């Protein structure tokens, strides 16, 4: 597991523990940054990606239908929130960084998000109509996760490294705080809607 730290001379990756999976209905899924350090948007987003990958592995290995339903719902909801928050906090900052490359990454990312979003939309219908055990749901779910993971890897391997060059620690921390606050708001809203 990698953390993105800026030592002033470029990007340093350090090992961190895989965050424990928690129910997003009860608290923000991820804590930002290493313990005692201010939030860092790149660490928060990377932890999102890692949790979805771990959940997907769990989805593929469990034999329990109820676990598959729970995990599938958690992933579909979580991916939707993750992408929306990136679009509200991360991409505007990237677009305004003053470099054309930032704008290009945003354009590509929005296309990738649209692709995943339309799959999640279809999956919600298939979840109700066919169920998680159907071949059709599984095919769509695997496609959505393959697309999501490919996009997450583009972000981690290219976009995050670009961000380390164009943003200083203070800016990354500010964005991290903003992202965490918005994530909490989105999760609370989802939670309230589910309880109606
Ligand atoms: Fe993204
Ligand atoms: Fe992402």
UniProtKB/TrEMBL annotation:
Q: Which organism is it from?
A: Gigaspora margarita
Against Pfam families, the record matches this protein to: Hemerythrin
Q: What Gene3D superfamilies does the annotation carry?
A: nmb1532 protein domain like (1.20.120.520)
According to UniProt, the name of this protein is 14417_t:CDS:1
| InterPro entries, per the entry | Hemerythrin-like (IPR012312)
Q: Which residues form the Hemerythrin-like domain?
A: 41-162
